[in-house]
Amino acid sequence: MRILAPIGRLLTSPWLTLPVLTVIGIAAGVLVFFNVYPGKPQIGVISIPFTVINSQSTYFITAYLDYARTNDRIKGVVITLSTPGGGAASSEQLYIETSRVRAEKPVVMVMGSLVASGGYMMAMGTSHTYAQTSSLVGNVGVVAGAPPLVPTTPPEYIIYTGPDKLFGSNRRDWIGLLDLLKQSFAQMVITERGDRLRLTEAELVQGQLYSGIQAVRLGLADEIGGPTDGIAKAAEMAGITDYELVDVNTEVDRLFVQKIRRIFAESDGEQPDLILPALLGMSPTANPDDLLNAAALGQTEEQRQFNLARLRELMINGALTDPEQDPLPGFPLETHRPQIYYMYTGYAGQTP
Amino acid sequence: MPAKLRNVLTYLVFPLILAVAVFVGAFFYFKPGAGYTAPPPPNFPFEALTVTRAADGPSGFVDQPPANPRRGIVAVDAAHRNGFREVELTALLSRITNRGHAVEFLGDFRPASAAGSPLGEGLSRADGLIIIGPRDTYSASEIAAVQEFVEQGGRVLLVADPTRSHQVNSIAAPLGLEFQPDYLYSQDDYDINFQHIVVREFQPDPLTVGLNAVILYTAGSIKTAGSPLASPGAATQSSLLADLSDVAPIATGENRNVVALSDLTVLVPPHNSFVDNDQLVSNLADFLTGGQRQFTLADFPYFFKQDVEILLGEPSLIDTGTALKSALADMQVPSRLAQREDPAVDTIFLGFYDNAGRVSSYLQANGIVVNDALSVPSAPEISTDDSGVITLHRSGDRSVLVALAQTEETLSTIVEYLIQDKFRDGLVNENVGVYKE
Known about the structure:
The structure holds 2 protein chains of 2 kinds.
Chain A: H1 4-12, H2 14-35, E1 42-48, H3 55-70, E2 74-83, E3 85-87, H4 88-102, E4 107-116, H5 118-123, E5 128-131, E6 136-138, E7 143-144, H6 171-193, H7 201-204, E8 209-211, H8 212-217, E9 223-224, H9 227-238, E10 244-247, H10 248-267, H11 275-280, H12 288-295, H13 301-317, E11 340-343
Parallel strand pairs in A: 1-2, 1-10, 2-4, 4-5, 4-6, 5-9
Antiparallel strand pairs in A: 3-11, 6-8, 7-11
Chain B: H1 3-29, E1 72-77, H2 90-98, E2 101-106, H3 119-123, E3 128-132, H4 140-151, E4 155-159, H5 169-172, E5 177-179, E6 184-186, E7 190-191, E8 193-199, E9 201-202, E10 214-216, E11 222-224, E12 228-231, E13 236-238, E14 250-252, E15 258-261, H6 277-289, E16 308-312, H7 318-330, E17 335-338, E18 346-352, H8 360-365, E19 369-370, E20 373-375, E21 382-383, E22 387-395, E23 398-405, H9 408-419, E24 427-429, E25 432-436
Parallel strand pairs in B: 1-2, 1-3, 3-4, 4-15, 16-17, 16-18, 18-23
Antiparallel strand pairs in B: 5-11, 6-13, 7-8, 8-10, 9-12, 12-14, 14-15, 19-20, 20-21, 22-23, 22-25, 24-25
Helix pairs in contact in B: 2-6, 7-9
């Protein structure tokens, strides 16, 4: 016991406990900092390959943006984008969602081969934009179908309650509506770009596509650069010196796949014959949740793999058709439909 | 230091060191003093935006057709897959009919049949011709027919629209006009859309009377060997041409009986109702119905521009006269039998050679002599037995047709030829036909 007494005093002595606890504290602090809280800051990278902006692609891009915004470890966001634009409402939604991210953390866009119209509108929601020298940028404006010059009066067995009930508007007011949308698009660009913009409103609404070099010169984009520049800029704007990259697409994709797997597990073997017709016959405007539910009905492993591949295609491209081959189905032949696009159509066809 | 306090401090060391380590660790990642500052929310001036309009609403224009309209026909080419619908021409066609002219569509909007184009035959009775957006080219004979029509004083309106494919230059070029494959636009002076240009400069011409501003909705450029009627204006640009000094959206051809308009929409209701567009439509109707086309006998009965009086050389010709009156009615030419000649009215004289003295001035004007034999220019004398002659005399707007024969039977036969459109076989020149049974 006499031997143990000095050891006990030594252990309770501040000369020993203080250094020991300090070392343990530092070790625990480092351990906590690097592994638990707050973790190494991240730059989230959202990749949007050539994509037509429509309700489906917007669903997924919004999911990417939402993930980047709500993940506290992500301190800055880089979006690589290539798009001809697309639906007006979808394009505006992407602008709004991008702006929401920008309100919390820096968002840098790296423009790919084409960032036109609605895609350029999305770019207006970012903090900084890079264009490549060969990028095609701009195309501010609206394209839409219109009521015919002389609308036909429906037969007597169709009753409608107002002169604009059938077409939604007469041709003149409809074209006026598009003029307002064009102006609001232009004002959005003028306001967001501020003093950087060196185009007049009339020049802007000409709808011209500019090369990346021209775009920077005219203030439509901030700098020439690629993804690496974008990541560095996002980090600089976020004020971080050491960080790791996170592929937001993969993270969100993983969440979707997890959901699919859960659905498979819950419904394995139920109504398996419905899966292929359900997928192949589905409407382009179907709710993605419906698609996921349909995917749960696969009968064989091959079918499931096929369906998963289809769904991944949907996640990446936002559509099951090849968007480059058919960017705007029906346009311009079915121009009577009341649909409005912020889109570069590349239209060079014959007049009807 | 009291032992109790010492113990407390001892146990505070761990969390304290932990916090310090976390704080210091942050410097590995975050730049001191730097950080992201979100920009203020943008303030878009959306409420201040207004649609750019050159016209707030219909102008309230009231068309005023002439009190005494002249009869005539305006033909509308529909034999070349023309790119328009009849309903689109409601405004223009109604004003043409208000000016006393009938509208006749030549063709059925399909390609001309192997039987031939209806254009040549249709032009024989027309005063005016409207050609809109033909998708088929014109044959050499059709071009010649239109050129002859223009030379005779027929009026031609050519319309083509850049938004609708057309082959109008196949007929426009021979008339001294060339529609350009461009469209005109303005970013400064437009109505609702940049392609809806406002034309404010007009050259003095009956076609531009009363025009101060016209909105053209999808206009293109026209080069002309004639005269431009409207200038695009400094604020207007072309989608293709750098210089607009020698083109116009409205122009005459080399012959002023031809007018070209590079926009169809301006004619289509309600687009015709804004600013002075309606005045332009009325001016075009006046143009098409106001020509002084030189008709010949071959154009019977379309040289009659007013109600016709039928004079009979003998009372016994009453049956022949009423038969002709009935046939004219079928051809939309109102007529009545009369006892005395009214020198201000279109007239048909039916009589025997013995009655030649009553119409001698008309016969002499065409070189016809009736004695023992019938003598007409460019033909040998023929016996008056079983023969007859028709001649047309035109003076100003008045037409007088004289038909003489030796017998009632022969005269009746000649009138049948007229009614059945067989009389052209006997024409010896533009104004005289001779017939022998």
